[in-house]
């Protein structure tokens, strides 16, 4: 069913999506991304897990990004859920993360008109089967009522950001993003970049740079979690770093 047809019929797409979630819950019951207990079809986390998250209230300046926001601090309470999401798209994580990103956006001065997920290369997409930032963006569009588009493409494979320090991360991503020729008219657009986790902000900075060079009026960025400053530089020595946590939980995933 086309978007134009839905608009013509004056149907609220957010409400329609809610009905879809209610129906699908019968087949694939909604679960809490952290503890995997059963939760209502329209809930994001169970009460206990939600209360265990540390809300992000920091302020960082990311080059080329007008406003950045995130919902929570990346810590040991949320990292297993984020890691599971990086290895399987099953469950409710992308809905839950989008729900909380929407909360953070509503509290900010972000006034975007298009959501843009951070892209993956075609090769990575083929290996993983999905782009987690795109899954979040698809849910988020119903929550903040603006469309999403894959405006950016990733033009080359880069080293894993977690293996590099701050300087290395910025160099690693240089020239790695481009605007998809389908979306070359970015003048006047206020774009909102979306990713699951923001560490140093290098990925958002490089993506925002490309969007601004192509005429975007404003570029905002939002992630579900933000790594605290103390863990940005030496993630490999951090026992709550993604790869360490993954070692601990990998038995439960497969
Ligand atoms: Zn829970």
Write a concise synopsis of the structure shown:
The chain is an alpha/beta fold. The chain is built from ten helices and six strands; from the N terminus they run αααβααβααβαββαβα. It has one domain (55-253): Rossmann fold, CATH 3.40.50.
Polypeptide structure, described:
The protein has 254 residues and is an alpha/beta fold. It is 41% helix and 14% strand. The strands form 2 sheets. A 4-stranded parallel beta sheet has the order 1-6-5-2, sandwiched between helices. Strands 3-4 form a two-stranded antiparallel sheet. It has helices at residues 3-8, 13-27, 47-52, 79-87, 93-107, 122-128, 132-144, 166-173, 202-213, 242-253; strands spanning 67-73, 114-117, 152-154, 177-179, 190-198, 218-226. The structure holds zinc ion (ZN). Zinc ion is lined by residues 32, 34-35, 37, 45-46, 48-49.
Task: Catalogue the unreliable spans.
Answer: 1-8, 234-254
Helical content class:
40-55%
The Rg value, from CA coordinates, equals 18 Å
CATH architecture identity: 3-Layer(aba) Sandwich
Bound molecules: zinc ion
Indicate the multimeric state.
Answer: single chain
Classify the beta-strand content into a percent band.
5-15%
From the 3D structure, determine the CATH topology: Rossmann fold
| SSE order | HHHEHHEHHEHEEHEH
Strand elements, count = 6
Sheet with most strands: strand arrangement: 1-6-5-2
Biggest beta-sheet profile: 4 strands, parallel
Average residue-wise pLDDT: 85
What is the overall shape?
A: globular
Report how far the terminal alpha carbons are from each other.
Answer: 36 Å
User: What's the number of structural domains?
Assistant: 1
**Total helical segments:** 10
Which class in CATH terms? Alpha Beta
Strand pairing plus helix content: what structural class? alpha/beta
